[in-house]
Amino acid sequence: MDSPVTKGHRSAEDQVCFEMMLRDNIEHRFPFHKVIGLKVESFDPKSPCLAFHMRPELVGSYLHNRLHGGVIATALDTVGGFAIAVAIAEKHNDETPEQIVMRFGRIGTVDLRVDYLHQGIGHSFYASAKVVRLGGRIATVQMELKNETGLLIATGTAAYVVS
Description:
Order of helices and strands: HHEEEEHHEEEE
Structural class: alpha+beta
CATH topology: Thiol Ester Dehydrase, Chain A
CATH class: Alpha Beta
CATH architecture: Roll
Number of domains: 1
Distance between the termini: 34 Å
Number of helices: 4
Number of strands: 8
Strand order of the largest sheet: 1-2-6-7-8-5
């Protein structure tokens, strides 16, 4: 019997499975992600997004209740890797969720640049990313972190190994 899925298109059921596996990876498999409280906000291939809420554990300046710069950098780095995972899943959309998730173990940050533009003040923060290039070995990503009002807190550019 032929598969209801045509070559090059993941079934809706497999897509849900893939998203559940990737969400679990981002939200539960990395202890530091759990400390920050990173949650998947969107799997949109054009601009995947992660979110988290301000908490006392994330403060970098107790005098001003600002988000720690390391948390900002981590959020940007993580959303960059998340964007690559989503892009890889789109590129290899004929593979099973398990095959796709196996590819993620090879993603690693090669270079990360963060530009801190405004103080990290807010109740909620949203990190989004755009894959500029997904090559066979290296991917390049641009990232943004905004607060709940849409204020651009920081931008980032990163290169990741993907093979």
